[in-house]
């Protein structure tokens, strides 16, 4: 952690905030909610005096913090339901496609209360952000093996949910 002056934080805001909003928009369907999470993440940069000069550490911190905050939104019992059941075929295609991300958000909305937090975070980083296991391990501080295990558990939950919803 390091001291941050007003010019440094302003420059970081101009550079990072649009990227953060984009990342949050991949996780949350509501643009206002995505901006709120991005804003809260950025506020924490200031509050926690995050080192803005180490791009690798900053990127990991931004992904970790914004994902945690988005998971909190998914798990909020007062959060309004906004989606139908996901289209299972779309979930098996490339996550870079915006339509696929929409289906993943729907799935996460339905599963939010049944998935453990760490598993949900890893699934978001993988399915919505398109990160590799190595990148996820670096961001979460877990080993690659743990990331693979968490994703496998998530896939099992998705399959069980799919089977129940098709009945």
From TrEMBL:
Pfam families: Sigma70_r2. Keywords: DNA-binding, Sigma factor, Transcription, Transcription regulation. One of its GO terms (molecular function) is sigma factor activity. The keyword DNA-binding applies. The keyword Transcription applies. One of its GO terms (biological process) is DNA-templated transcription initiation. Residues 14-79 form the RNA polymerase sigma-70 region domain. Belongs to the sigma-70 factor family. ECF subfamily. NCBIfam families: sigma70-ECF. This is RNA polymerase sigma-70 region 2 domain-containing protein.
């Amino acid at each position: 952690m390091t001291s941050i002056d007003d010019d440094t934080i302003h420059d970081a805001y101009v550079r990072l905030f649009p990227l953060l909003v984009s990342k949050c928009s991949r996780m949350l369907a509501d643009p206002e909610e995505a901006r709120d999470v991005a804003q809260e993440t950025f506020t924490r940069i200031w509050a926690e005096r995050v080192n803005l000069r180490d791009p690798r550490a900053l990127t990991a911190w931004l992904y970790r913090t914004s994902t945690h905050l988005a998971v909190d939104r998914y798990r909020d019992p007062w959060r309004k339901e906004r989606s139908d059941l996901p289209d299972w075929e779309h979930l098996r295609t490339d996550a870079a496609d915006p339509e696929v991300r929409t289906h993943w958000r729907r799935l996460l909305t339905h599963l939010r209360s049944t998935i453990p937090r760490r598993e949900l975070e890893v699934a978001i980083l993988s399915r919505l952000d398109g990160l590799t296991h190595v990148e996820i391990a670096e961001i979460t501080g877990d080993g690659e093996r743990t990331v693979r295990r968490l994703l496998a558990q998530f896939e099992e939950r998705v399959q069980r949910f799919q089977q129940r919803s098709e009945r």
